[in-house]
Each structure stands twice: as C-alpha cells, then as structure tokens.
Specification:
By secondary structure, the protein is an alpha/beta fold. The protein contains ten helices and 15 strands. Helix 2 packs across helix 3 (163-172) and helix 2 packs across helix 9 (291-305). The two termini are 19 Å apart.
C-alpha cells in the first residue's frame, strides 16, 4: 500500500432495462465500497473511458455469443479505460504511477488484477489514443480484406470511431479511392475536408446505389462495414470481381430503437456474391492477437509524423457519461467519444 485510499468510489449502474435505445434515465451514478487491493490486485484511478455502441448489445437481451458478460439491472457498466495505478497489493508486478489500460471503465476507481491491465509505454503521444478503435480497422483491412495498392475502398459509418481511422489507414496502405458513408451532411464535409475521403455519401435522401454508382463507377474492391443492413446490401450490388468484404460492426441493428442490439439482419444478393467471387468475413479481435501491438506501433509513428490524426471528443466528468452514451446513439459526435475524469 502506498497512500491513503478512498473507501468508496462512484460508478455508473443500469437501473432498469430499456425498451428501445437507452437514455440517461436508465442509469444512475452510485457510490460503492472500494476494497483495498489484495494479492496481485491494483487500484486504478481512471482518467478516460470509452463510450461505445457495443454497450447497447450488452444491456439488451440478445447478447448470446458476445465475448463479454451481459449487463443486468443493478450492474455497473464497463468498457475500455485508461488510468493510473494508485495502490498495489502484495505480489504485484505493477507499481503506483504506472499508466495502464483495462476494461473497468465507467467508474472513478477500479479494483483489478494486474494481469487484467496492459502497461502503457510511450508508443502513442497521448494516452487517450489507446482508446481508439483503430486496431480493429487496421486488422480488418490487413488480415481480412488484404488491401492492395490501387483498391477502391468503401467504409460504412465513416464518421464513427472506426470509420474516422479506417479511411485514412486505407489511404496509407495504398488505396487509390476511399469512399465513406454517413448520416450527416456536416460530417460528410468533415470526412472529405479533414480526413482525406475522396467522397462521402449521405445516407437517406438519395438511394445509396445511385450515389455509389457515381462515386465508384467501376465498383468497389474492399468494404469495411460497420453498419450492415441496407448499406451492406448496397455494397454487395457494387462489388467488383474478387471484392473482399470485412465486417466489423452492426450499427444498423445496435442503433435501431426497434431491435434489441443483438441482431442486424441484411437482405443481400447471394447470387452476386457467388458470381463475383466476393469474400465476406467478420472481424473478431481475439482471432488476431498480433494486431494490437502492430497497430500501436504504426499508429504512433503515423501520429507523430502527422500522417494521421485521432478524431475524438472528450466529455468532461462522470455526470455527463450517460448523456454521452445517448448522444453516441443519436450520432451527435464525430469520431471516438471518451469521458474524461479529473486528475485529482
């Protein structure tokens, strides 16, 4: 033990299961006991935690097969966080002052075992960048889609946490044309002006097939899909011979008020998949354990050189976290959304 520790901490708890999309009324900020760390355990004071759409699935009733536990009424939310070790128990490899990532965000302090933490080095210039979703985008493009120089790439949901990194990464990996989709004209403009997308298609007002035909008249070689649903179906119709599709998200189901976050049906043309020789694979991080380290090294180099940025929004304070989650579902933000906690 190294210093006087608080005996309680605050965490965000699910108070009732939502019907439709969760709102701040479904959560409360509760004060709970904070035990002293035991053997191999540490107390981490969280500085940032991620607001991510997968919470909709974990809160819903259809989370079967997801490699994370469901969140029931009375449970605290959780997710990726960056923090500082403030105290350690016996036989612990970490030390006070170490910066780490772990999965017990949505609280001010976390009691975790040292083996559930990843010690941070100086690979990234800003610790909050460790909460990016770039590892999944990079892994999907390199391991599943096998992106090649000259490819035409479509990224659905391009203004989200994955898409704001996927487009620039695709370009750095050699893509000739990068196209994104978004629900907002303002975000479409930011995608082209700030992130180098050649074209950003606004879903809704005009048929996506018509827009894709203009943006990629010869079709697309690679799809990085975070949405599913009708956008996946349109991408299938635009596929070139031998196109490679990497599915990384299912926002059309997760963000639908009429579903429960655990399914995202799509009516796709399987005849075209066969006729065009299209590969369609889902990306799962645990299947590619070598990707995070490779991504962090390349991400850090690209950030320091100015070849890439990390678009994100910092929401100040625990009290605003439930609202930040609702705003994420509403598409209010551009890029990654994190909650920032005060340092003291």
């Amino acid at each position: 033990m190294t210093e006087a520790l608080p005996t309680t901490t605050r965490e965000i708890v699910l108070t009732e299961p939502p019907v439709g999309l969760p709102t701040p009324e479904h959560f409360t900020i509760a004060r709970t006991p904070l035990p002293a760390p035991g053997p191999g355990q540490v107390i981490v004071k969280n500085r940032y935690f991620l607001v991510f759409p997968g919470l909709r699935t974990l809160i819903g009733s259809q989370a079967d097969g997801v490699p994370l536990p469901r969140i029931h009424t009375g449970d605290a939310l959780f997710g990726p966080a960056v923090g500082e070790v403030t105290a350690t128990g016996p036989d612990c490899t970490l030390r006070p002052g170490d910066q780490v990532t772990h999965l017990l965000g949505w609280r001010e302090h976390a009691l975790v075992t040292a083996d559930q933490c990843t010690l941070l080095d100086d690979a990234l210039p800003d610790p909050v960048a460790h909460l990016s979703s770039g590892s999944a985008a990079y892994g999907a493009l390199t391991r599943l889609a096998g992106l090649r120089p000259g490819d035409t790439v479509l990224v659905t949901g391009a203004a989200g946490a994955v898409g704001t990194l996927a487009g620039p990464v695709a370009r750095l990996l050699g893509a000739a044309t990068v196209i994104g989709t978004t629900r907002s004209p303002d975000k479409a403009e930011r995608l082209t002006d700030e992130l180098g997308y050649d074209t950003a298609l606004v879903t809704g007002p005009r048929p996506l097939d018509e827009q894709l035909a203009k943006a990629a008249p010869d079709g697309i070689d690679v799809l990085l899909d975070t949405v599913g649903g009708q956008q996946l179906a349109a991408a299938v119709r635009a596929a070139r011979q031998g196109a490679r599709f990497a599915l990384i998200g299912a926002l059309s189901g997760q963000l639908s008020p009429h579903r429960d976050g655990g399914s995202s049906p799509a009516d796709i043309d399987t005849f075209r998949l066969i006729n065009k020789g299209v590969s369609l694979l889902g990306y799962s991080g645990p299947d590619h354990p070598d990707v995070p380290k490779e991504w962090t090294e390349r991400f850090g180099t690209w950030l320091r050189s100015g070849k890439i940025t990390f678009p994100h929004v910092r929401i100040p304070g625990m009290d605003h976290a439930p609202r930040a989650l609702q705003e994420l579902f509403q598409g209010r933000h551009f890029g990654t959304v994190v909650v920032e906690l005060p340092p003291t």
